[in-house]
Design a protein that fits this description.
- This protein is mostly helical.
- Helix content is 52%, strand content 7%.
- The protein has helices at 19-36, 40-50, 54-57, 77-80, 88-109, 111-132, 144-157, 176-192, 201-218; strands at residues 3-8, 162-167, 170-175.
- The protein has a three-stranded antiparallel β-sheet with strand order 1-2-3.
- The protein is globular, with a radius of gyration of 19 Å.
- The two termini are 37 Å apart.
């Protein structure tokens, strides 16, 4: 992507530390470094076992005929797959978005509800990918679907919050609706143009819209959406670093 986010300036008001986001980051990196310790054959077996294989999810093909060989049932991989990643760029991209945006989404939900929200987004995203190609025997792995849910939720909560991004060779501040709107627009463009690239585009799109919808109903009582009561951003600040707002204890 031509836009790479680095940080945001949306304040937290309900939590001091986003322990749920920390836990998700730690879990993903733990599993990733475990993958790196495996041999090539063991890595392929690990990905096949815990990745989401659409043919297995829907009982199509040989994958569904050997349940005794897999410690996780096919439907269980809709959850387990989101903790596996294919390489450094894959995990860094996902974890960067989670690190920047996850704390504010967690702030609006609370620790436990946030983890439930993240899991639901990831499961439904993996299911959407499986529905898009139900006979595929290629494992899908990665936290992209769940992180897409976080992106969707953040956009509903803080569309005007400034996000610092690398745009080509320039580091600037842009409102979230520009950065995240560009992101989801790119996912939809890739589906329309049948861009493959080994990316589960439908998982990204489904996760985004699931997260955008769920946050409306799951957020803490009294938590505003669409930046209600948020101080209007001065456009002069978009090229400089605004001060991070304080959170309440």
């Amino acid at each position: 992507m031509a836009i790479l986010p680095f940080s945001d300036d949306a304040p937290r008001r309900n939590i001091r530390h986003p322990y749920g986001t920390y836990a998700l980051l730690a879990a993903c990196f733990f599993v990733f470094f475990y993958q790196l310790s495996l041999s090539d054959y063991a890595t392929k077996l690990f990905v096949t076992t815990y990745g989401t294989i659409p043919a297995a999810v829907f009982g199509n093909g040989p994958w569904a005929s050997t349940p005794e060989m897999t410690p996780v049932p096919a439907w269980g991989t809709l959850l387990s797959s989101m903790y596996l990643h294919a390489g450094f760029m894959h995990i860094i991209g996902n974890m960067l978005f989670l690190w920047i945006l996850g704390d504010n989404v967690e702030d609006s939900l609370g620790h436990v509800r946030y983890l439930c929200f993240y899991s639901i987004c990831g499961i439904l995203a993996a299911l959407a990918h499986s529905i898009s190609d139900p006979v595929s025997q290629i494992p899908m792995i990665g936290a992209s679907g769940a992180v897409s849910g976080v992106i969707g939720a953040y956009l509903v909560l803080h569309p005007r919050a400034p996000i610092r991004v690398l745009l080509l060779i320039f580091i600037i501040w842009l409102p979230a609706w520009v950065v995240l709107g560009f992101w989801i627009g790119y996912q939809i463009f890739c589906v329309i143009t049948a861009t493959d690239g080994g990316v589960a585009w439908w998982a990204h799109i489904a996760g985004f819209f699931v997260g955008a919808l769920l946050i409306i109903f799951m957020r803490r009582r009294g938590t505003p959406i669409f930046d209600q009561n948020y101080v209007k951003i001065d456009h002069r600040l978009l090229s400089t670093r605004p001060r991070k707002g304080r959170h309440q204890n």
